[in-house]
């Protein structure tokens, strides 16, 4: 506790907090560090954002911060928030407020308050509802205590020490004010490794349908934050158990109904969660220091969502033929509905479509042509496909797991060798369109595209042909085509 207190005092003494505290106090306004910075100081986590709450209105905040800042942004003014860059720090200061839904609009209605304690009570969770007051209480007089004071209205510090996520007020009231907080509960539970208070779980279950009041964009952003944590699985389980994921991402809880044909796990749902976490672990080991990859994580979670629709009983065997193609279509539909950007949608759908392509490699030798096609089909997603395919091995049969791992090692080795020989990342025909037209004596048209695709197939099948051989193949194809026509 003494170390945490020292960290908090260091935050207060450092710029820009000290500069802001002096300016706001001189103007007779309250200013407090709130939420994440206070929580993370107690948890000995890096403090990456400085968030403040104040009695000042947005216009007053802008007037006080402007002289101290290199730049300010008032894009959140309607919600009471002013952002600024002071030195190396980007800060946000928000007028005491409460976000509430009227049950009709899908955006929160904002009401400004006039007391820090009231502001904190309206926040999402007790561990985020602590504040460090860095100015005297407004109206406290000349003798008011100017030293930093911890304000904890909901027992946040106690919950922090216990590792419990709870709400400052009744969870039903909190979630009614902003239903997105139910998804935040899942994210914070995963991010902090906390248990969720039973009354919070009960309220999430009862109010799950209210998540429909939230815009797709806000739901998408909160789902993204959950998936980008180091261990998102507990949060996904919470969303599933409370029925929220049935609304947000129904294809995932639907997997609980399907038995895995290899009996790897209790069901495909458990398999998919394992694949997600194994993929995250592979991200770290294969690409140390790289930022978390949302595309890979979405693909890991969604790679088998085509199984419920393709499930068939054949004798004693459960099959899921073409679940890769069906799953790719379902992934595209769902991610579009959640307003993910087109590049993310296309990449995830393509990975889902390709995730079975490797299987069978260890059972029969692939030709160089097959390896080229694997690389060509994956394109810029190849490294992500490596991660997805490897993480998709969840069998408890050690020999089988080792055999598949060895086979994929061999495939990656062959890809590396062919890359050195052939520049596989930019596979093109040996002749471009201009040369094709010159050799055949034709102008632009459909025939040029057909010839180009034919030469690309030859390149994939046989490797680099060289210009002379490619021209001979082209002339031979053209002559045969003329006979057929």
TrEMBL record:
<keyword id="KW-0460">Magnesium</keyword>
<keyword id="KW-0547">Nucleotide-binding</keyword>
<protein>
    <submittedName>
        <fullName>CCA tRNA nucleotidyltransferase</fullName>
        <ecNumber>2.7.7.72</ecNumber>
    </submittedName>
</protein>
<dbReference type="GO" id="GO:0008033">
    <property type="term" value="P:tRNA processing"/>
</dbReference>
<dbReference type="GO" id="GO:0046872">
    <property type="term" value="F:metal ion binding"/>
</dbReference>
<dbReference type="InterPro" id="IPR002646">
    <property type="entry name" value="PolA_pol_head_dom"/>
</dbReference>
<dbReference type="Pfam" id="PF01743">
    <property type="entry name" value="PolyA_pol"/>
</dbReference>
<dbReference type="InterPro" id="IPR014065">
    <property type="entry name" value="tRNA_adenylyltransferase"/>
</dbReference>
<keyword id="KW-0808">Transferase</keyword>
<feature type="coiled-coil region">
    <location>
        <begin position="401"/>
        <end position="428"/>
    </location>
</feature>
<dbReference type="InterPro" id="IPR050264">
    <property type="entry name" value="Bact_CCA-adding_enz_type3_sf"/>
</dbReference>
<dbReference type="InterPro" id="IPR043519">
    <property type="entry name" value="NT_sf"/>
</dbReference>
<dbReference type="GO" id="GO:0000166">
    <property type="term" value="F:nucleotide binding"/>
</dbReference>
<dbReference type="Pfam" id="PF01966">
    <property type="entry name" value="HD"/>
</dbReference>
<feature type="domain" description="HD/PDEase">
    <location>
        <begin position="264"/>
        <end position="406"/>
    </location>
</feature>
<dbReference type="InterPro" id="IPR032828">
    <property type="entry name" value="PolyA_RNA-bd"/>
</dbReference>
<dbReference type="InterPro" id="IPR003607">
    <property type="entry name" value="HD/PDEase_dom"/>
</dbReference>
<dbReference type="GO" id="GO:0000049">
    <property type="term" value="F:tRNA binding"/>
</dbReference>
<dbReference type="InterPro" id="IPR006675">
    <property type="entry name" value="HDIG_dom"/>
</dbReference>
<keyword id="KW-0479">Metal-binding</keyword>
<dbReference type="InterPro" id="IPR006674">
    <property type="entry name" value="HD_domain"/>
</dbReference>
<keyword id="KW-0819">tRNA processing</keyword>
<dbReference type="GO" id="GO:0004810">
    <property type="term" value="F:CCA tRNA nucleotidyltransferase activity"/>
</dbReference>
<dbReference type="Pfam" id="PF12627">
    <property type="entry name" value="PolyA_pol_RNAbd"/>
</dbReference>
<keyword id="KW-0175">Coiled coil</keyword>
<keyword id="KW-0548">Nucleotidyltransferase</keyword>
């Amino acid at each position: 506790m003494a170390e945490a207190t020292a960290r908090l005092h260091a935050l207060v003494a450092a710029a820009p907090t000290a500069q802001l505290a002096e300016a706001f106090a001189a103007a007779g306004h309250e200013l407090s560090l709130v939420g994440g910075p206070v929580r993370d100081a107690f948890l000995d986590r890096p403090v990456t954002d400085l968030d403040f709450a104040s009695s000042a209105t947005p216009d007053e905040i802008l007037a006080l911060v402007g002289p101290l800042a290199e730049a300010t942004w008032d894009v959140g003014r309607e919600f009471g928030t002013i952002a600024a860059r002071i030195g190396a720090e980007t800060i946000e200061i928000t007028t005491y407020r409460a976000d509430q839904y009227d049950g009709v609009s899908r955006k929160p209605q904002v009401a400004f308050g006039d007391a820090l304690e009231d502001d904190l009570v309206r926040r999402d969770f007790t561990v985020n509802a602590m504040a460090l007051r860095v100015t005297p209480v407004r109206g406290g007089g000349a003798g008011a205590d100017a030293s930093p004071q911890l304000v904890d209205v909901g027992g946040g510090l106690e919950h922090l020490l216990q590792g419990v996520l709870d709400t400052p007020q009744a969870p039903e009231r909190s979630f009614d004010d902003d239903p997105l907080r139910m998804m935040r509960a899942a994210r914070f539970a995963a991010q902090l490794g906390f248990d969720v208070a039973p009354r919070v779980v009960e309220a999430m279950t009862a109010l799950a349908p209210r998540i429909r009041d939230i815009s797709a964009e806000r739901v998408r952003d909160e789902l993204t934050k959950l998936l980008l944590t180091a261990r998102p699985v507990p949060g996904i389980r919470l969303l599933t158990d409370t029925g929220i994921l049935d609304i947000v991402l129904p294809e995932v809880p639907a997997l609980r109904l399907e038995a895995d044909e290899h009996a790897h796990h209790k069901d495909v749902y458990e398999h998919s969660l394992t694949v997600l976490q194994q993929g995250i672990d592979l991200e770290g080991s294969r690409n140390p220091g790289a930022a978390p990859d949302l595309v890979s994580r979405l693909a890991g979670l969604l790679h088998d969502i085509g199984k419920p629709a393709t499930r068939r009983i054949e004798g004693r065997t459960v099959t899921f033929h073409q679940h890769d193609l069906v799953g790719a279509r379902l992934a595209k539909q769902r991610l579009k509905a959640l307003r993910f950007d087109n590049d993310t949608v296309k990449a995830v759908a393509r990975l889902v479509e390709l995730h079975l392509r490797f299987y069978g490699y260890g059972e029969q030798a692939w030709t160089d042509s097959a390896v080229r096609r694997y690389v060509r089909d994956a394109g810029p997603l190849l490294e992500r496909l490596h991660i997805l395919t490897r993480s998709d091995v969840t069998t408890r049969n050690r020999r089988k797991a080792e055999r598949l791992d060895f086979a994929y090692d061999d495939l990656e080795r062959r890809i590396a060798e062919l890359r050195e020989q052939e520049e596989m990342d930019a596979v093109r025909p040996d002749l471009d369109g201009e040369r094709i037209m010159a050799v055949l004596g034709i102008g632009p048209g459909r025939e040029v595209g057909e010839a180009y695709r034919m030469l690309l197939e030859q390149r994939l099948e046989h490797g680099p042909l060289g210009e002379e051989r490619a021209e001979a193949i082209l002339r031979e194809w053209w002559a045969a085509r003329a006979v057929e026509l």
